[in-house]
Amino acid sequence: MTWRLRSRLTLSYLLVALLSVVVVSVLANFVLEASFRRYVATTQEQNARQVAARLGSQLGPDGWDQAAITAIGMAALEQGMIVKLSDASGSMVWDATVHNNGLCVQMLNHIVQTTSSRYPNWQGSYSETSYPVRTSFREVGSVAIGYYGPFFLDDQELAFINSLNRLLAWVALGALGFATAIGLLSARRITVPLARVALATQRIAEGRRDVRIVEKSRIRELDGISTAVNELSRSLGEQEALRRRLTADMAHELRTPLATLQSHLEALVDGVWKPDADRLADLHEEILRLNRLVSDMENLARFEGGATNLSRVDTDVVALVDAVVRNHEAQFRAKGVALRFHADGPAATPCDPDRLSQAVINLLSNALKYTPAGGTVDVTVTGGRAVVEIAVADTGVGIAAEDLPRIFERFYRADSSRARATGGCGIGLSIARAIVEAHGGTIGVESEPGRGSEFRIILLR
Ligand code: ADP
Hints:
Blueprint: H1 5-56, E1 59-60, E2 63-64, H2 66-78, E3 82-87, E4 92-95, H3 96-99, H4 101-118, E5 125-134, E6 139-149, H5 155-205, H6 220-269, H7 277-304, E7 313-316, H8 317-335, E8 338-344, E9 348-351, H9 353-369, E10 376-383, E11 387-394, H10 416-421, H11 428-438, E12 442-448, E13 452-460
Parallel strand pairs: 8-10
Antiparallel strand pairs: 1-2, 3-4, 3-6, 5-6, 7-9, 10-11, 11-13, 12-13
Residues 362, 366-367, 369-370, 394, 396-399, 407, 412-415, 419, 424-430, 453 line the site of adenosine-5'-diphosphate (ADP).
């Protein structure tokens, strides 16, 4: 069974409140009753002594004042005490049971009833205690005061305990109401942002990429989810745009050589052109272009898969880069760009030499493409203790700051028209990055438009 978060949270709050109330009530009753019993027992003792004291002052020169004694005795009976007064010689002066036995029995029954209603297990028993009765100067008799012990409750005391429990019940009710309100409120604080996230992800799943959650939550984790969803939406949007551009670029790249091939072949078929060596060389050039594009795509797909395709061997990176540089010298010379190679320290590291050469070739051919005649390209290999660094620095056109973070993306060209003119299709750097990352290394660039660029590959040794 699945729960709504709101019900679940509210119920938890309610349970906690209920538990607290029960514990507090039980403890309060326990503690209060213990002290209450003590209080009642002490009060009874005091009352009895008071009765004895008041009786003492009722012996005048003409003997006991029977009317006053009766008043005291009846008042005591109301408090649950049965008074029996004897004089110094031990003969009975006044006895409540003699005075009004019916009322005594009724009173005692009432006490048993009241106290048992509160304490069903109450085991009281009737007992009498004797107190001396004195005037100011001497002892003039004794009074036996009987009541139910060890304690009993009269009506007011019972009313007190009952109202205390009623108060506790109200407090409990209030606490439960409060807990429900707080539970609902704090559940709302969580469920509302969660519902927002759910709606946003649903929209993203439906294909919308402009979804952003702008409302802030004061709960950090929930805020984190919102940020993650926004990031997801943004990055999906970027990926989609990239994919669309990729498809468009692919179509464009393929169309140019295919259109040339088609028109040239049609001219040959129609007999407009003779199939001489020049014409065929043109056709061949276009086919080479197509082939380059397809193999670039293939390479990229292969390296973006990760390190599994590498065959690593211990390689002297200085020798490897030197060989690549020498292979390109002719091209650089033809364009009038100076190419220089520097090596600093031994730089042996386990790598896939063919793939690493490919990455360096891509950097080098970019440097050649984007450096006008008269410029310089410096290739440097530095062997450190922990890393090997390959740097390719040119004095070419440079890269605008807004393009820098994106040039390693597939098919990204800082300047489409110029790049196309130079034969680039925006894959060279993607391949270089895929190769370097498959080796566990990093590739980065620093550039200043108009002054040149420097690409750096860093490999761990
Ligand atoms: P391309 O085949 O278009 O050269 P790359 O992936 O190799 O594709 O490069 C992506 C983009 O980065 C290029 O279109 C170009 O704008 C820019 N770029 C790469 N290398 C250089 C460089 N050395 N100097 C200036 N711009 C460069």
